[in-house]
Amino acid sequence: MTHPYHHHDPSARPEFHEETGGAADLPRDIALEAKDLYKVFGSGAGKVVALKHATFTVKKGEFVAIVGPSGSGKSTLLNLLGAIDRPTSGKVIINGVDIFSLGDQEIATMRNKLIGFIFQSYNLINRTTVLRNVELPAIVMEIGKEERRNRALKVLEVLGIKDKANFKPTSLSGGQQQRVAIARSLMNNPAILLADEPTGNLDTKTGNEVFALLKMLSHKFRMTIIMVTHNPELAAATDRAIYVRDGGIEKEVRNL
């Protein structure tokens, strides 16, 4: 059986085409759809409803914040959107693919092709170089050495740290390490970037710089980004904020 994600060819990417003036006039397609997501942990008396009836769509090129207090369900939601965990019920559709209708191996392949992850703690491999860290998703996809090197250098250049390619992550500042993590997430030109508190380990100034990079990727290159944050100022600077409380979506706010 052929699934739509098999046609997502990362071989010529990342392309990083800037959006032109006319693009905004075109109808924007849906990058992701969450349908009635429900997640229960445990069973019987120990049952905890972590997420209930979460339904929303994200358009291609949209920058969406998921906001809520600790324990509200926002990280559970992000894990379901990224197919790191399966929902108890409900669907996540990315680029037309109902991802939880796939087998585990197909989900792993789809995740590497269609989703880029950015973590609060960077999750870099300190024993190897920045360049090698960025290349990792393309290595998994068995993309040739020269092509993946060229692609990684191009992404690092876009993010302003090409000169750090041969450094080890431990020699970089926190902000530079997060740029490396963002570069890695872009390697297979994903349909969606999922960022879990990407500024959480950074001081305010550096965090704002990293956030500005994400906004640049969204607006200039039309990347679709879903970011979990507890920072109301950052949430207000995205296209739309989805507020989560007690496992449910409390409200959605479109930012002007």
Automatic annotation (TrEMBL):
Spans through the membrane: none
Domain ABC transporter: 32-256
Biased composition annotated in UniProt, kind: Basic and acidic residues: 7-21
Annotated Gene3D superfamilies: P-loop containing nucleotide triphosphate hydrolases
Coiled-coil zones: none
PANTHER family: ABC TRANSPORTER ABCH.1, IMPORT ATP-BINDING PROTEIN
Protein name as annotated: ABC efflux transporter, ATP-binding protein
The organism of origin for this protein: Nitrososphaera viennensis EN76
